[in-house]
């Protein structure tokens, strides 16, 4: 039995959204709040017109209140709706306090139909837009308790059920199956239950609908991100497979060429005619190797070429001099680029080395944007043609200087955004291809560092 009660308690808490951390706010707050101002002003005008129309056909004939007070009370009841979505709980509290105070002093004002609509809209808005759901339940519950207490007070201390029945001329007769006093009380109770229940349920259903829509939008965005990442991962995996295949092709043909070249060298002095066969094999193997390499490289470039062709773009491969342009395409990340090099040194970096460093910076900035809480990053490009000193780490790798790119950020890993690791794997493969060194990992002072240094050739291109 306690479990049954706990289950119902949990269901009620879930329906009211008490344990939900979600807060409903308008998609365009400035526009929504501006519309509320116009709505509240319109209700003020309608209430004033309604009060005058009611006064004109004698509705306030037995009420001694001055006309200006009737207008003022009607306007004050509707004016809080101007802030119904900005401060929903404050508005419903003020509106229902107005209902109680005016209902006890000038009750005929509160019965005006426009003000009845105002009370409904205020209650509906509180349930639909309150950001603190626990406070909403308390405020709305107190308002409902006060309303039904006011009704009971009116029946008990006001005109009384017997007096109302007497005014209706039903004191000595019973037109239906139910006693007139009981029927009148039940009828008013039914109307108020429908009124308040309708406002509360409609507001809560609207809150749940907005919550579900936002969840669906978030799920759709997550699915789209995951789909894009899976597609990217599939492309990278396929390119790695083709790269291995390219390595096998080159290794096979170069091995055959080497063997045939050795055979031709031994035979060319003794039997030149016999050496022609190995040389012909070398010619065939070299041509076949070039053909297969072109096909595999075309496949590797196919996806990017398709994207560029669709956009009508035909651009050369980027180089080290293009790294500063990455600061303009980082999706909101504030990027500072610093170049440390003599004049013309960056442009003189060979194309393959410049492309590898450019891709390294591009991948590192993409990882900062996707997987880090950092709002900014710093990119340092260095080119140094001086020979490395013997006491420097890996000095034997940079006898003719180096080109380097370093990406730093001060963020923390973002929860739930772990990547596949394929991007950094590609960075390390590029470093290994050029015989360079890489420093990839978290910094002791916080943040993350990706630094790649590649050796420069002996002669300038």
From TrEMBL:
Coiled-coil regions listed: none
InterPro entries named among the record's database cross-references: HATPase_C_sf (IPR036890), HATPase_dom (IPR003594), Sensor_HK_TwoCompSys (IPR050482), Sig_transdc_His_kin_sub3_dim/P (IPR011712)
Keyword Cell inner membrane attributed: no
EC code(s) of this entry: 2.7.13.3
Xref: CDD domains: HATPase_UhpB-NarQ-NarX-like
UniProt keywords, alphabetically: ATP-binding, Kinase, Membrane, Nucleotide-binding, Phosphoprotein, Transferase, Transmembrane, Transmembrane helix, Two-component regulatory system
One Gene Ontology MF term: kinase activity
Keyword Membrane: yes
Top-rank EC class of the record's enzyme: transferase
Domain Histidine kinase/HSP90-like ATPase, first and last residues per copy: 352-458
Domain of life: Bacteria
Catalytic activity: ATP + protein L-histidine = ADP + protein N-phospho-L-histidine
Transmembrane segments: 37-59, 65-82, 89-106, 112-130, 137-161, 181-203
Protein name: histidine kinase
Provenance organism: Isoptericola peretonis
Organism ancestry: Bacteria, Bacillati, Actinomycetota, Actinomycetes, Micrococcales
């Amino acid at each position: 039995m306690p479990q049954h009660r706990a289950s119902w308690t949990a269901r009620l808490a879930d329906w009211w959204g008490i344990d939900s951390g979600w807060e409903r706010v308008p998609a365009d707050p400035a526009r929504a709040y501006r519309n509320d101002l116009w709505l509240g002003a319109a209700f003020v005008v309608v209430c004033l017109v309604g009060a005058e129309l009611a006064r004109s056909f004698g509705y306030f004939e037995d009420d001694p209140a001055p006309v200006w007070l009737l207008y003022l009370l009607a306007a004050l009841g509707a004016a809080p709706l101007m802030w119904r979505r900005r401060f929903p709980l404050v508005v419903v509290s003020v509106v229902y306090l107005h209902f109680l105070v005016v209902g006890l002093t000038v009750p005929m004002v509160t019965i005006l139909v426009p003000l009845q609509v105002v009370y409904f809209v205020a209650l509906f808005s509180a349930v639909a837009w309150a950001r603190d759901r626990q406070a909403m339940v308390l405020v709305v519950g107190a308002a409902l308790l006060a309303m039904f207490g006011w009704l009971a007070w009116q029946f008990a201390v006001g005109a009384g059920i017997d007096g109302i029945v007497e005014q209706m001329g039903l004191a000595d007769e019973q037109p239906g199956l139910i006693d007139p006093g009981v029927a009148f009380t039940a009828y008013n109770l039914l109307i108020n239950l429908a009124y308040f229940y309708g406002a509360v349920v409609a507001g809560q259903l609207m809150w749940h609908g907005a919550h579900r829509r936002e969840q669906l939008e978030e799920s759709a965005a997550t699915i789209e991100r995951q789909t894009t990442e899976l597609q990217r991962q599939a492309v990278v995996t396929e390119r790695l497979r083709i790269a291995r295949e390219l390595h096998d092709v080159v290794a096979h043909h170069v091995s055959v060429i080497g063997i045939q070249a050795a055979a031709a060298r031994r035979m060319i002095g003794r039997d030149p005619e016999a050496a022609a066969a190995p040389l012909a094999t070398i010619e065939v193997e070299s041509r076949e190797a070039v053909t297969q390499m072109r096909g595999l490289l075309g496949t590797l470039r196919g996806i990017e070429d398709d994207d560029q062709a669709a956009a009508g773009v035909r651009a050369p491969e980027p180089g080290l001099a293009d790294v500063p342009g990455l600061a303009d395409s980082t999706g909101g990340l504030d990027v500072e680029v610093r170049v440390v090099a003599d004049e013309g040194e960056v442009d003189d970096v060979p194309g393959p080395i410049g492309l590898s460093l450019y891709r390294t910076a591009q991948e590192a900035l993409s990882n900062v944007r996707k997987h880090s809480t950092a709002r900014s990053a710093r990119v340092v490009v260095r080119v140094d043609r001086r020979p490395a000193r013997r006491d420097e780490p890996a000095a034997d790798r940079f006898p003719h200087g180096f080109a380097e790119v370093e990406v730093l950020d001060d963020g923390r890993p973002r929860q739930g955004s772990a990547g596949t690791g394929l991007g950094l794997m590609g960075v390390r493969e590029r470093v290994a291809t050029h015989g360079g060194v890489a420093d990839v990992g978290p910094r002791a002072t916080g943040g993350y560092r990706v630094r790649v240094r590649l050796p420069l050739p002996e002669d300038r291109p």
